[in-house]
Amino acid sequence: MYKHKLTTLKNGLRVVTVPMSQVESMTIMVGVGAGSRYENRKNNGITHFLEHIVFKGTKKYPTSLDITTASDEIGAIIGASTSKEFTRYFIKSIPKHQEIAFDILHELVFESKLNAKEIEREKGVINGEIDMYKDTPSEDIHNLFDLLMYGLTPLGRYILGEKKIIKLMKRRDFLDYQNRFYFPKNMVVLGVGKIEEKKFLGLVKHYFSREDNRNKEGFKSIKVVQNSPRVKLERKKTSQAHLCLGAPGYSYSHPDRFVMDVLATILGLGMSSRLFIELREKKGLGYYINTFSVNFIDNGYLVTHSGVHANRIEEAIRVILNEYRKITREKVSRRELKKAKEFLKGRLILGLETSDSVANEYLLQSLLEEKIRDPQEILKLIEKVTAEDIQRVAEDIFRPERLNLAVIGPYKDEEKFKKLLKF
Length: 423
Hints:
2 domains; five-stranded mixed sheet; alpha+beta; Cytochrome Bc1 Complex, Chain A, domain 1
């Protein structure tokens, strides 16, 4: 299994190296502690927009074609993504091209031209992406659930932003935002795969050693205060209804985070999970169902996500609630608990077979958790979970007054759904 090494440079930049002797690739990943939760109402969507626009040209690579050509010439995979709490940029290549890979990544992160014409042109692309997700209710339901959970706070707002806000963004907005967050103490560079640590650190110092003594800006911590069940309904003419039904849970650093993961697995991860068997196999209420936990720095939630026949949604909600209630009242069996833990451990290991997937795991921990754990430590924490832990956490999470239900489908009566939210 893997072991990491953390090095902090003089300028405050953290560098995480994870050698993988069994692979022939290497991934360089840059994480920035800036996600959509650091935005305000007037610039909602700028984090994601900036992630797009840096690929439109830099000082050394003036156009998007120059960037992609440089990447293609070394057979690399290049990309980026934005979450609510961070932005990541990465390039995956074979080790002999790592200097070029570093050069490209450095240009993207620090030397983007932020061309005004490209910004105006890209607004159409961003709007198209917003439309794509709005036209995909199985995806858009997550945004509706976050809005229900967190309201018009940064965690409740859409990562992609709103069209009317995107329309008003100017080059100065991007320069100001980049200047606020893109500095060493708010970043981490990861080298994962077939790397030689001394050489990798030398390249990091060469490309990322700019001096900047600023400290990371804080964010407004969000605590979910809820005393009654809530429903949010988006009326849409669909044959299949999409729903998210869940409750507040725990943050990344909470001691019961892994208990919540095992609880979610028992309920709705895998084709032998309780909800898959009850809702799909026994009752044929819909095609997909899964339960999972979401963790942020300061809070989190556990939620079941499903697509069901529109005329049987009430039955589906009752099935989910019944399983929530049952797991608070009856201890899970030794066999079911073992199955869930082995499922989680197996998926963790299977998900760490490539340099980019390992980089993603360590990036999350580097930016969002109080400490970095190697996979073997996470496996031990999963294994420690007991049946008593599962029941205790289920009782804490699944309380009727803390239930939240988001629905996209051909309905207009929220009160009808609210009446269902009881044990």
